[in-house]
Amino acid sequence: MEIPSKLVSDAVNEFSRLPGIGKKTALRMVLHLLQRPVEEVTHFSAAIQRMRAEITYCIRCHNIADAVLCHLCNDPHRDENLLCVVENFRDVIAIENTQQYRGRYHILGGVISPVDGIGPEKLNIETLLCRLQAEPVKEIVMALNPTIEGDTTIFYISKKIKDMPLKLTAISRGIAFGGELEFVDELTLGRSIHARLPYENYLVHPK
Question: Does pLDDT of 201 surpass 70?
Answer without folding.
Answer: no
